[in-house]
Amino acid sequence: MDGDICATATTPPDSDPARKRRVHGMLKLYYGLNEEGKTVDQAESMNPCDINGTHFDPEVYLNKFRRECSLGELMDQESCMVKQIRSLDSDMQTLVYENYNKFISATDTIRKMKNDFKKMEDEMDCLSTNMAAITEFSAHISGTLQDQHAQITKLSGVHNLLRKLQFLFELPARLNKCLELQAYSQAVSSHRRARCVLQQYSHMPSFRGIQDDCHAIMDKLAQELRQKFRDGGSSAKDLSECVELLLQLDEPAEELCDKFLIHAQSRLETNLRGLEAETDILEFIDRGCNEFVSSLCLVIASYQELFVNRPQEGNLASKNIPQMAIGKLHAFVDAMATCYFSLVERRIQEEKSVGDNSLLVRALDRFHRRLQAVAKLLPGSAVPSQGTEIVVRAARERIKQYLAALQSFYLDSLRDVRQALAAPRLATGKDAPASLPELLSSLSASILNQIKSVLASVHLFTAKDITFSNKPYFKGEFCSQGVRESLVVNFIKFVCQSSRQFCESAGDRGGSTPPALLLLLSRLCLDYETSTITYILTLTDEQFLVQHRSPVTAVAALCGEAREAAQKLLKHYVKVQGLIISQMLRKSVETRDWVNTIEPRNVRAVMKRVVEDTTSIDVQVSLLYEEGTRKAHSSDSSKRTFSVYSGSRQQTRYAPSYTPSAAMDTNFLSNIHKLFSERIDIFSPVEFNKVSVVTGIIKISLKTFLECVRLRTFGRYGLQQIQVDCNYLQMYLWRFVSDENLVHFLLDEIVGSTAHRCLDPAPMEQSVIEVICERG
Amino acid sequence: MEDDAPVIYGLEFQARALTSQTAESDAIRFLVGTQSLKFDNQIHIIDFDDENNIISKSVLQHQAGEIWHISASPADKAVLTTCYNKTSESRVVTCGAVWRMPPEWESGSHESPDDPHNSHNPQNLELLCHLDNSSHGNASCVLWEPMGDGKHVISLADNHALLWDLTESSTQATISSSATLEGKGQLKFTAGKWSPHHNCTQLATANDTAIRGWDLRTMSQIYCIENAHGQLVRDLDFNPNKQYYLASCGDDCKVKFWDVRNINEPVKTLEEHSHWVWSVRFNHSHDQLVLTGSSDSRVILSNMVSISSEPFGHLVDDDDLSDGEDNHQDEKTQEPLQDSIISTYEEHEDSVYAVEWSSADPWLFASLSYDGRLVINRVPRALKYHILL
Question: Pairing mode, if any, of strands B289-294 and B277-282?
Fold first, then answer.
């Protein structure tokens, strides 16, 4: 403080604003208000020579000056310091003066306030006395008014009562008026308000009169409402209003329910009748949905509104109303739905054309979808599940229809093929065999396409956007039992079976089935066995994600069946073709007089025919079947081996004829021969290749030849003719068969048997035979 | 239970004709006629000794020609008929004749079958009469009246069926009535059978693919099964116990069973052979046993239970059944009745043209193949006991 003053004293009293502020700041500092000064304070605090700092030490400061400054400087410093002290003194004086003035004015103010308060106290006292007087007066007034107030209250009560009474007395008139105006709801609410009162005071004759009047009127009203209800011309909303009013009038709810439903029924039935006229399935279903199902929903909704979900406000004897009503509703909905369903089902059954399935599926989908609304409205109802059943039945029926369609398509295709086989032969003659593989491929392709398109159609049933596709039936049974088993497997079975029928029906008399068709079908079945069945089933399984929960037919079983059919067809083909050639040979042997025939000059025409036919069969079969294996041929099969039996063997056969003990030897030799040759199965199983097929046909033909020869008796030239014929057959037939020895053996047997049946066995020279044969 | 091995007998000549000696009910005896154009034909009388499994034969000369069909009289053991080929002036004619065997053949053959004297000088058949039908064409077969007194025969010749009356000694035959098959083309009877039912008044014949029934009293057709087989019908036989049942076989490799009251469909069809079936025979006592022979060289014995007169596998009129056996029978009725192939006999190496049951032993049969091999077989014992018990 001292230093401060000292410093101030020493500072020259130049009065610029900056200095003034500094002085102000110092004051602030003094009163502890300084904020900014803190840092200055801290920075300078340590310096004892700072004249403005708190740690200022005059001794150090003086010593410092004395040591550092010259006398002149010291003098200057002293005069500066004196100047500063002076200015500080004047500042302080100003300050004190200012504060003093403020003290004076404050004291004045306080004194003035003291005077004012005293005045106020007096006024308050006056007020309290006035209030007490008012209270007194008020008590007095209320005491005097008491009686009148009670009277007024009573009067207003009477007034109310009178108003009510008036209402009651006016009620009949009012009700009548309402009745006239058909403001039924107002009438009912009025009556309801009065009812209790009337009931209560019914012992008084006047009230009873009113009550009776009201009753009469309300009865009339109810009558009218019922009439309106019965007429049924009004809209559903009117109707429900009607019902509501009637309910409020304590009409028996059951009766109302019945009436309501009967009315609804008549409307729904007109809807149904309207449906019957519809022809297009989609329109039919649409109309059914829009008219019948939505009306039904409306009926259900309003019914529930009216009877089931009623707030139980009234003290109607209505404990059982919701239950009773719900029961009736269920019965009603079921009955109506049954009518509707039978109509729908009949309509769906009429949907026989299998062209576009999407229409039906869409219709079914809509049908099913709309029924869900009923399900939502009426949770316990059997209607949606019945609807689903209808859809399921429709799907089943559809599968059946598709199967039938596929079958008829197959039969139609076969008919086309049959015609194609027959037609070119008439027209050009040579086109038929060439087109056999084409026919096969086109037949097989068209069947496959048909199957695919059917699968695609059926697949619509399981499409994701169809509401019923996620029903368990459509996820499981429909795919596995329906599509896979009933449709695909059954169709394949049908193909096999119908093929087999070709063998049976055509079994007698050569049959009407062209052999080429048999061959073609056999190849078709074989193709089915090797690839098509697997392909179709895999396709089905993939498309329908079939989960084999129930047992299904294995692919192997179907393949087996197809193979069996193929085998049977091929066998039958061999039989038929063999029979044709056999018949030629048989007729040729039977109709000739072999004893008296002339010396052979030619090969008989029938043999050429046999070779020709065999060749054409060979060509035909090679179109569809692979070559197959055969035993190696000798270099000149046509001649070399034949000469063996016609030369050496024959000699051993006929030589014994001239010795007495001949017969035994012949038999012995031929038995020995047979011992070493294999037994020939004439109708042995046929393999799926050309050689086997043709071999089978040749075997049948030659065996027939043999048997026929054995039934005849020959002259010398008869034997020679047979020799020539057999040689000719040998020349041409060996190349067709799997084992040429077979042909040798059979021809050998024929010539041998002929020789036995010959009256004059003189065989022809081999060289002559060859000349005749080569001449043709 | 081992079955006896088949007994095989070889003839020197080729042969088609086989019959059992119908009138013989004690000895098992078959007659075989040979076919040879170069040598004298023979009739082999083959006796089979069932106990010792031995065959003894005797040979009778049939010099008239090769034998296509043979048939034994049901009344007289010694009398038989044959159809034979006669060649003269490069013409082949098939004739029918009634023959009597010489009385000595029996003693001669049994003494020594290998007696050189016997074989070198075989005895001749005694001709009783020709069934002279040159005006009617070639005879295909001669049928005796079944179970008759040996006085009536029918011969089938081309398209004629001729009913002959024989005199007491069978030395003379006269045509009592005849029927002719009229139609397009050359019609020819291939086979025939005289029905043992209806008082022997019915005959069944086969021509081409048709089977016809005839009433012998009026000689008129009573039924006709057109297209009975796909191809030629080769043989017929009547079920001996069911009067309307008929079996047929033919070139379509099938054996069919017919109920002649309903000729639209066969009752049953067998398709076991792989070539023409030449012969079909019902067993005389147990008609479920059916024998067939085929040119696939096989003989097949089938058990046609479902259409037999003994549906339960044993005789209905079997009186002396004990209670125990009754129970046994009940067990058997529970088994499903299934037609089955009992056995396939493959002893032959050439076409089998004839099969025949023995008239003496119902469990024994013979089959004859073209190469002259005669095989005698028995019904498997297991089946025999199954049927009997």
Answer: antiparallel
Nearest CA in chain A to B229: A508
Answer yes or no: are the C-beta atoms of B1 and B381 closer than 8 Å.
yes
Residue B87, min C-alpha distance to chain A (Å): 9
Q: Is A663 in contact with B349 (Cβ distance < 8 A)?
A: no
Alpha-carbon span A68 to A62, nearest angstrom:
10
Residue B42 has pLDDT above 90, yes or no: no
Residues of B with CB under 8 A from a CB of A: 10, 12-14, 36-39, 85, 87, 90-92, 209, 227, 229-231, 252-253, 274-276, 295-297, 346, 349-351, 370-372
The CA–CA distances, whole Å, from A753 to A15, A661, A708, A764 equal 170, 20, 10, 15
Measure CB to CB from residue A683 to each of B38, B275, B351 and give the nearest one: B275
Sort residue A343 into left (φ over 0), alpha (ψ -120 to 50) or beta.
alpha
Q: How far, in Å, CA of B204 to CA of B183, rounded?
A: 18
In degrees, rounded to 5, the angle at the alpha carbon of residue B140 between the alpha carbons of residues B134 and B145 is 100
- Tell me, what amino acid is at A756? H
Q: Where does A182-277 have alpha helices with state H?
A: 184-200, 205-231, 236-248, 253-276
Structure tokens at A153: 């209250």
ipTM summary value? 0.85
Which candidate, B9, B53, B52, places its Cα nearest to that of B31?
B9
Quick check: B37 and A507 CB within 8 A?
no
For chain A, the C-alpha Rg in angstroms (whole number) is: 64
From A381-390, A502-511, A611-620, the region with the lowest mean pLDDT:
A502-511
Q: Confidence class of residue A21 from pLDDT cuts 50, 70 and 90?
A: low
CA dist list (Å): A644 to A344, A649, A741, A748, B313 = 84, 7, 12, 10, 55
Read off the pLDDT of each residue in A459-488 and give the average, rounded to a whole number: 76
Q: Are A540 and A594 in contact (CB under 8 A)?
A: no
Query: Within its chain, how far is the Cα of A521 from the centroid?
Result: 38
Q: Worst-scoring range by mean pLDDT, A350-359, A529-538, A654-663, B199-208?
A: A654-663
Cβ burial of A140 (10 Å; 0-12, 13-18, 19+) is exposed
Query: How does residue B170 score in pLDDT terms, banded at 50, 70 and 90?
Result: confident
CA distance B229 to B209: 5
State how far residue A664 is from chain B, nearest Cα, in angstroms.
5
- In a mutational test of the B interface, the residue from A683, A686, A708, A748 whose CB has the highest number of chain B CBs within 10 Å is A683
Nearest-angstrom CA–CA distance, A562 and A564: 5
Q: Collect all residues of chain A within an 8 Å Cβ-Cβ radius of residue B85.
A: 713
Report the DSSP beta bridge partners of residue B214. B203, B221
Percent of chain A with pLDDT over 70: 78
Q: Which of A679, A756, A757 sits opposite B297 (nearest CB)?
A: A679
CB A461 within 8 A of CB A388: no
| Chain A, nearest residue to B353 by Cα | A707
Selection from A499, A489, A486 nearest residue A558 by Cα = A489
Distance from CA of B389 to the nearest CA of A (A): 38
Q: What is the pLDDT of residues A710-754, one digit of tens each?
A: 888 888 888 889 988 898 888 888 888 877 788 888 888 888 888
Check CB contact under 8 Å for A596 and B231: no
Q: Is the pLDDT of residue A571 over 70?
A: yes
Closest of B245, B364, B338, B355 to residue B300, by C-alpha: B355
